[in-house]
Amino acid sequence: MLDRIAKADPSAKITVYARKPEAVKGFEALDARYKGVVGSLEDEDKLEDLASKHDITINCADADGLTSTSAILRGLKKRFEATQVPPILIHTSGTGTLSDVSLGILCGLG
Description:
The protein is an alpha/beta fold. The chain has one domain (2-106): Rossmann fold (3-Layer(aba) Sandwich), CATH 3.40.50. Helices cover 40% and strands 20% of the residues. The strands form 3 sheets. It has a two-stranded parallel sheet. The protein is globular. The protein starts with a helix and ends with a strand.
């Protein structure tokens, strides 16, 4: 997904937030536009600040992370208040809650 976003907008500046410095270095080695930030999901101030500075935020880390999700949402709210442009949140973690692996079927709600 990140690769497609980077290809779609060659002028995009992309921040990658990771828990391990090696992961950050790996992303930075892939593309000069990637800037890495090391932190944990408990670093609320960092998460909020980063979300407030970006048009698009992608959370792939934790579907159950109330602390991190709340911080990201606060940052997105600040972004909207500053720009009056709704920021985009893509949340990919937790999609497994839509499936029932024991039966091998995908469940839909609605």
